[in-house]
Amino acid sequence: ADIVAIAVASGLTNSSWAADEDDFERLIEQSMSAAGPMLIGVRIDDKPGTCTTRRDPVQISELFIHGMGVREPL
User: Fold this and answer.
1) Average model confidence (pLDDT) for the chain?
2) Is the pTM here over 0.85, yes or no?
3) Among residues 8, 40, 13, which one has the least CA distance to residue 24?
4) Where in 1-74 does DSSP place strands (E)?
């Protein structure tokens, strides 16, 4: 999925892909003075993903609650 296209379609119109490291640095500087939120997409390599997230609702909920600092993990 094109995360930048999804962001733009969702209303984050100030979103773009970084072409290279220099462009990424430029976009970071631009984001610091932007009036609203900005998404910067970065490709780190041309390989497909190597793993997937387990689709266990209980585990996802527990990890989210732990990440929010609400309680310690089970």
Assistant:
1) 88
2) no
3) 40
4) 15-17, 39-41
